[in-house]
Structure of chorismate mutase:
Amino acid sequence: MRGAIQVDRDDPADVLAGTRELITEVLRCNGIGHAELISIVFTLTPDLTSCFPATAARDLGLVDVPLLCATEVPVPGALPRVVRLLAHIESDRPRSAVRHVYLRGATRLRPDLAA
């Protein structure tokens, strides 16, 4: 499952709150529980350096799920202040049934999926 959120500024409180919102919404929209999570990869745009988004996942109780944080490629003109996630899940559902979640300004990244 994929998702992204644009945060207002590079501040730990904003980045962590946005990441918690994103994780919560991705899991809720897909009816996914903790036990179905295999791992989550987070990426941040290069302008977000104040904290690790994985901290937000740990705050939500995902203490035994492997997490990884990385920086996005700094493409000129890319949408700023974006946290993305790619969650690997164990599921029998078809890929077409998975809902990808794009929140706040990140809806511009994939308007076809944000609708």
Summary: The first helix runs from residue 12 to 30. The chain has a mean pLDDT of 95.
